[in-house]
Amino acid sequence: MDKKTLAFQYVDMHKKEMIQLWEKMVCIDSSMGNKIGQTVIGQLCQTMLQKNGFVVKKIPYTKCGSAIIAERGNMKNPFILLMGHMDTVLTTYLYEGTPFTICEGKAYGSGVLDMKGGLVVLFFLIQALSAIGWDEIPMKIILDADEESNHLYSNVHDVIIKEAAGALCAFNFETGFTDHGLVVQRNGCRNFSIEVYGRSCHMGNDPENGCSAVIEMAHKIIEIEKLTDPSKHWWLNTGVISGGTVANSKPAYCKAIINLHYAKQEDLISVRKSVNTICNTVWISGTRTVWKEDVGYDVMKRTDGNIQLLRMAKRIAQENGFPIPYGKHCGGGSDAAYAVMANVPTLCAMGVEGARNHTNEEWADVNSLFIRTKQIIAMIVRLKGEFGTKYENS
Ligand SMILES: [Zn+2]
Question: What is the DSSP letter of 94?
């Protein structure tokens, strides 16, 4: 029997264990801000990686769980990079008493899709490959616990760029889509926080002795939103605004948070410049504006390498009767951007398929847990002969 068939058998024989691990992971609350929970799931991942022969190193952070870098094999050779994040947006406590449920082929719970299901795929494909004695290509795993907060509390993006360098290819086990699309390109995103300081005055006694921070902000918002340009994939949105105290006093303060999604990394510089010009323009004299750029995700660039890997994924899916993927351009950011920045052909959204992540209606298709595990196993056992030239040249 060939190695792929043996590994598929392993998956078929361990479906119960896969679901059990899924439940165990979902029941650990590793939501944003919960460093203790993120540490607990990190320890679970560390133990499983060590059991499978990986050497694990951890990078600790003050305000979030450690990042995990695990290696197996001779890392001087090109390696396969498997990536994921262990944190979730929502807490498991939303689901009183039943953090994980399965009903009519769908699993529900915080992070069930984004992306604890993907972590189960990652761990069981490693286990299946270990069980059949496959060790043809070295492997590296990068897991972080600060993805959902856009790496606010860590330098994980730099860690990924550094650790990914030299990889033959990368798979990121992010949220999969029910249309079977695999992500080859992602937009970048940034938030801009703008604060306007004006001067308040009593509108009955002293109406001319103030300057409105709200009106100044209104001018700025209209100009900034005008930067939206669908032809360039520039999307700007004033998502949050607050200001003023009472209706009969001119507002002395106003704050707005503006979100930008953009498709080309170099465009960030142009948008930044325009936002800066608008923030430095004064419509209401006497007001003062400060602005800053918050953390965000860089663009996952569509590269020839990503497309080559996608072609292989399609071919493997066809041969094995799995749903045929297509190359998806996704609006939201992910850690895959940083693997691509390290010149590594990358496919993202390789995790379980489902929808409604980041909400309490998050669900994942249970069957996709097994199909995705097999899909990636089938790709990995064929990589050496079929993908890229790096490995053959080394
Ligand atoms: Zn995610």
Answer: G
